[in-house]
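Title: Comparing notes on inverse folding

I've been comparing how different people in this forum approach sequence design from structure. To keep things fair, I'm posting one structure and asking everyone to reply with a full sequence. Here's the target:
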C-alpha cells in the first residue's frame, strides 16, 4: 500500500495502541484516508531490558504473545497483502480488549500467543489455519525487526506504541497520541487536526504527562461510559524500576 495516507505501527497487545487505532479509524472514515497497518514489536523493542527488574511479572509473557501474533500477521500479509492486516488487527483488538474481561495468563503462558486464541480469528476472517504455524516460527522476526526499526527511525528509540506516520514518506511522524477514552466522531477529527498541527511544527519534540487513566476498555474493567482510575505510568509503562 504505497499510497497510504497513514502508516500506523502497532503491537497487538498494547492497549493504548488499540485505543489510538480506534480513534484513527473514526478519522479515516470521515477523511477517507487510506491506512497501512504496520508492525512494531514491544518484545523486540525491549530486547535489551531486564524484564524481571523493570516490569510487572506479566509483561514479558504479554510482549512475547504480541510478537507471536505479529509473526502470524506477517504470514497473513505475505499471502494476502497489506489490505488483510486492518481486519486482522481489528479481530485481535476486539477479542483482547473489547470482549475480554478475565486474565490472559494460563500459568506462565499468555493465552493471546496461542493456537487456541488465533484459530477462531483465522476462521472468522476466512484465512487458512496454516498461519497458526507462524506463532512459533522465529524466521519471521527479521521482517518484524526491520519494520520496528523503520518505525523507530521516524521518531527515535525512546518511545513505545503506536507510532503514526502521516503523509509518508516525507510527512510528520510521532509516537502516540496516548489516549484513554474514545472521542466522539466530531471530537475525533478535531483532535486529529490539533495533533497533526502540533506535530508538524518543525521545532516540536514532546508534550507529555505520565498520569494516565486506565483505558476505556473492558479488558481493564472500564465500560464505554466510564472513566478509568488514574495511574502513574513512568516512562510509558507501569515499570517497577524507575
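Reply #1:
Here's my take.
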Amino acid at each position: 500500500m504505497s499510497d497510504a495516507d497513514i502508516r500506523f505501527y502497532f503491537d497487538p497487545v498494547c492497549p493504548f495502541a488499540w485505543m489510538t487505532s480506534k480513534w484513527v479509524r473514526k478519522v479515516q472514515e470521515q477523511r477517507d484516508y487510506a491506512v497501512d497497518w504496520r508492525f512494531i514489536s514491544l518484545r523486540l523493542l525491549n530486547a535489551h531490558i531486564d524484564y524481571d527488574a523493570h516490569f510487572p511479572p506479566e509483561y514479558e509473557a504479554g510482549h512475547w504473545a504480541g510478537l507471536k501474533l505479529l509473526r502470524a500477521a506477517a504470514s497473513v500479509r505475505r499471502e494476502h497483502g497489506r489490505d488483510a492486516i486492518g481486519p486482522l488487527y481489528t479481530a485481535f483488538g476486539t477479542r483482547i480488549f473489547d470482549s475480554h474481561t478475565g486474565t490472559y495468563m494460563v500459568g506462565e503462558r499468555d493465552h493471546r500467543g496461542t493456537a487456541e486464541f488465533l484459530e477462531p480469528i483465522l476462521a472468522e476472517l476466512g484465512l487458512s489455519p496454516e498461519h497458526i504455524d507462524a506463532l512459533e516460527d522465529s524466521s519471521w522476526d527479521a521482517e518484524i525487526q526491520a519494520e520496528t526499526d523503520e518505525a523507530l527511525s521516524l521518531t527515535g528509540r525512546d518511545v513505545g506504541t503506536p507510532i503514526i506516520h502521516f503523509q509518508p514518506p516525507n510527512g510528520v511522524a510521532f509516537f502516540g497520541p496516548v489516549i484513554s477514552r474514545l472521542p466522539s466522531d466530531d471530537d475525533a477529527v478535531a483532535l486529529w487536526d490539533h495533533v497533526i498541527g502540533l506535530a508538524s511544527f518543525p521545532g516540536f519534540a514532546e508534550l507529555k504527562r505520565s498520569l494516565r487513566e486506565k483505558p476505556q476498555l473492558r479488558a481493564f474493567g472500564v465500560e464505554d461510559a466510564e472513566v478509568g482510575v488514574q495511574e502513574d505510568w513512568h516512562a510509558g509503562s507501569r515499570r517497577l524500576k524507575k
